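INFO batch 0412 | record 1 of 1 | parsing
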Amino acid sequence: MWPGGRCLRFVVDSWWEPRALKALIKVGYGCNDHCLFCHTLDVRHVQGSVDEVTRKIVRAHALGHDEVVFSGGEPTIRPELLDWAERVHALGMGVGLVTNGRMLSYPALVDALCARGLRYVYLSLHGGSARIHDGLVRTRAFAQSHGALGVLSGRGLDLTVNCVVTRQNVEHLRELVDAVLVPYPDVRLKFSMVEPKGGGAALFEHLVPRVAHVADRVLDAFAYARDRLGDAIRPRLRHGAIPLCLLPGHEDLYDDLRTHGFATMSEVGEADFFPVDDRNKVQPESCDGCALRGPCPGLYRGYWEAFGAGELRPVRDARPRGNSLHWVFERLVATGVGADECPLRDDGVDPWDRGRHLFVWHQGRVGRYRTGSRDFPDVEIERIKLARGQVYLDASRKRAPDDFGADLVPLVRSVRCGRCAHDAHCTGMYEPVFENVFERAQRRLARRLEGLSGRIVDVGCGDGPFDELLEPAVRAGTVDYVGIDPDAARLARTAARRGWGMYLSVGLEALTDEAGCLFDHALLLRSWNHLSDVDRGLARLRGLLRAGGSVLVADDEPFGLARTAAQATAAEGAALPFEHRRNHRASDAARALRAAGFEVVEVDEPEPGQGTLWTVVAINPSDRAAGSP
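INFO prediction complete | emitting tokens
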């Protein structure tokens, strides 16, 4: 309970069933195809032993996975496959395959696998005809790979066909629509950019097309699918490893290991599982500020090194985005854990993602949380959690916390982590701190407001959270207050409640001063990240602020909340009148103010454990352009 008590509850919502968490096990790199772009071109002779694969199946169960997916190479050519599937099934987990599908053209094998819990198949098919497909896999495989769809379809499987797009098939993607989507109504079709890895690297110039052209051809195939099958086909279309800015209107169709529920994977010879990540891709500097940066895969690193980022078209609009993420409670992993013990260290730190997993210790119990957020890229999630320390437990039952001091319990890295040899690469253990860490920053902000006098414009005044500080000065005549907000209804409620000041239903970008009198101060209190256009707004403000006038900006850093599934679901469904348009920190705001001609005199970033609020103070210098804009 919080704040009335000093106890956290680890709550599982019995009604909530998350998507199955998958563990990917590479069983060996041998294959009955010989794909030009094969990732494992140089290790095809390496096979995992029976004991190694069996041990990893048991480990996947111990880690709490729901499905084990076998991959390679080609897993279906291993004679031990049915035995491994039987073991997975006996442990209560589902079975999956990443496969070229050739062996699955035999109904008896598919029947046997289904009897052992087959749930998921990710099947490679790189052309809608033998001429295209067989040329890429360098063997006569199309009849079997395509024929497997007829055997697999109709069994209730999670079934995806993946086409790796190369120079050889980029002009023939429509054929796959006819070969896959038309005859098989329970199959999804995905087009993936070829990766410069293995054969893709060795034959780079021969295989790798320009990514903008790939995006154009994928869009054409999607349009063709809709023409053939109607708009209802959209949920069965997918794309992978293509920057989202090149696929406007289809951003939500992005597909990768994480969207399929993969949490960990293990290569042949690796002693344990490791988290699935996107470290083979890069988001170049030109992607900074793009509205799609969070969910976008970026470019394969090898592609970027060869071609650069000139084809990208970063999206600079002010579409809504999340300013927080949630780690959702998965399970209680240990009880009776002493203050000096660590189940992570004892069981192995490798399978846990440094940013996306969160372990919380409290009164001897350890709960595991995980985030699937795509509002932020992996590097940003790690920054929020590990570098900035912006991790809290949502102790409220609200859709969106509105009183951080009462609603949020800070979670801090346990002291035991500081003396652990694994600290540098471990996701870490966190503990609650029952203290209102937000008060100090609020008091600093209050002191700044108490000293203001003259004509003030309060940008995005909203519900008026600082009434007690502003009202006495307004009534005493030392402050001439103008509040602006684009939400007319909310503004009217605030004006009626206050009974003082002037109110204009307008955004900063469109503000004019009809009285012909410049402002002495401008306040942007938790409204900076809601501005629809920062540059236009600051240009307007500079013309309305007297020389020497001040700008006080205060807003919140991105942060993460540990929540139950019910809280996370409610938060995702909450409709807010004005969403965040960016996730600027103090340094970002300072940079924008300087670019607009202001003199920045103070930048205050919160340290870990000091809440989320940052502030920037700037002055309009004496060379201000005369007159209102």
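INFO post-check: Residues 1-6, 11-18, 624-629 have pLDDT under 50 and may be disordered.
INFO record closed
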